[in-house]
Protein: DNA 3'-5' helicase
Amino acid sequence: MDVSFILDALNDKQREAVAAPLQNSLVLAGAGSGKTRVLVHRIAWLMHAYEISPYSLMAVTFTNKAAREMQARIEQLVGVPPQGMWVGTFHGIAHRLLRAHWRDAGLKESFQIMDSDDQLRLVKRIMRELSIDETRWPPKQVCWFINAQKDEGRRAAHVPDSHDPFSRGMREMYYHYEEACEKNGLLDFGELLLRAHELMLTNPALLKHYQQRFVHVLVDEFQDTNTIQYAWLRLMVGEEGSITAVGDDDQSIYGWRGAKIENIQNLSKHFKDLHTIRLEQNYRSTGHILKAANGLISNNDDRLGKELWTDSGEGEPISVYAGFNEQDEARFIIEIIKKWRDDGNALKDMAILYRSNAQSRVIEECLVREQIAYRIYGGHRFYDRLEIKNALAYARLAIDPNDDGAMERVINVPTRGIGERSIGTIREIARDQGCSMWQAADQIVTHSLMPARAANAIKGFMQLIQGMASTLQNPDLGLGDIFDQIIAEAGLIPYHEKEKGEKGEARVENLKELVNAASGFNWLETDEEFSSPMMAFLDQAVLDAGEAQADEYQDSVQLMTLHSAKGLEFPLVFMAGVEENLFPSRMSFEEPGRLEEERRLCYVGITRAMQKLYITYAESRRLHGSESFNSPSRFIREIPEECLEEVRLRSQVARPVSMQRPDYSASIQRQNQNIMQGHTVPETNVSMGDRVKHPIFGEGLVVNYEGQGPQARVQVNFDDAGTKWLVLSFAKLEVL
DNA sequence: CTGCAGACCTGCGTC
DNA sequence: AGGTCTGCAG
Structure:
């Protein structure tokens, strides 16, 4: 069979990666080097050149979007969908294994997946039942602790005992949480992975079956794998199978959620005869942009080493704009966007990237004022929205009235006279008798255990759910019709309609969208492990964000955080708010390794740009209600100077005469000088790290500085008075 | 039981 | 500044 079509359109390195022998291989794919392309062609190659059945292949990604894209591109290249191949996210595949082998995994058949919101609710519920002090152990932190343990593959029993009461409390909470999940058949996201790993570990026959089945496993974004994902992969691949890991250590930006960059660095230790290929030719960006990215990232240690290059010319230098404040910064960005638009460019080809979501508001306001369409990426997932989760909870309750989580959620939504007091009583009875809340409610109604008014409200609710249950049984109704009826019977539409503002309108829209999504849901696509379309739909709703942005196809400027920009590309990119304390985030200064991660995040940002990149920062910024003065980010200094140019806006904005913008290149020089002088603030005797004394605020530590001459200011962390910025020429500071 | 007013906290956010 | 959560008045 002629397989040349698979290799024809590739460069030498890509071809080497695609046509590599059937052995373990690591493809270090730089930004814009054709990573997905290699992965897809590799799959086609394995199928055609080695005649491996798609049934024997598994491809793992991190997001549903990536999984869908891969599936679509395989189909495009090969001509037919890869029948029998497993393509999915880590969680999706783990879930599939658990549904198929629920008994071996020690689960009940009806187990349910919780999202982070459900998890938090459960933790709160447990803590309240046990009367644990929520100020000492904040529920959010408890969740965070549990998830971090699971990322590391540890159950409560594996958490090492430490002797401080706080950690002990955390561990204890984990125990109680585990118990509650077990009892109610609930699995959080981390549990899916942990359980799938244990399933393989404790069932050698099953493990052997899958090891023999999957001849080759492919993993995308390998630098993002955490400990448990890595352990599971090692098991699944085994001694006989092999792996193709594709990733980029320079784009590892999820350390805070358990990703271990070491996994990619240590790959050769655990997978024998690892064949490493570097893809360094970039097809996305201009020379200047790549040079800037290379220069920046070279400041990180412990890299596997990679240098991007292109043969498509230098392009324009990167423009740096110093805004007077965040308003000015936004105005500048929109000015450039208008220029590009008027030159005939599509808005969807322009992206504004920022470090944190809070930064988007000022930019949005400016876009609205100028009537430029925009779209914000990320933010709330469709199925995470309150109104959607409520509708889904009604469906859950209709399927299984003993689902306490769902019951708690909707028993009084919309309000129907069942308040905290009544719910408390139901909960109490349920706990005393070890039955579900539904059964408890049933007793209240039949034995009149509560005042008539409350009992009647409960009775009404139960009849409502029973009605929904029979709707569910109606074989003539499709999934969409069922949701339509559930929403109508629950009265969710009028409930949200009377909400004030545009919020309610949006919620009603979303509910309609849910009916749409349910009608369009194709059960057959999701294979044989599910007992009913409704069950499959509910699981999918938890695992898939549901990209349901209504105006997805409208031509609009793209706004997103740097994190959600990974994997995307745009001809015109703005990186906004590139200031010390913001980017790199001040929180990255404390923990070792975090600054490097911030730098990688900046690298990701730079490499999103195809033709033109603007870096902007503001000299003063209002954030969280108070004003801060940050110096330009160190990352700007780390970019080779010849790649940069300073820009000023022609239409000058009004600014106080006294606040002249300092010359940008001068400020860089100044900072370089500062570094050479060991962070000494010019013309003073105060240095970073000095202890100083202030006549009013008392003693403190100098933690930051900026400006020079009469404007020079230092940030002092006072022992008692907190952190303050002081102008050196006014504040009478004494160095201790 | 419900609705409003003040306290709180505040990074990124897949599944 | 702004959303969520808790506490009190109707």
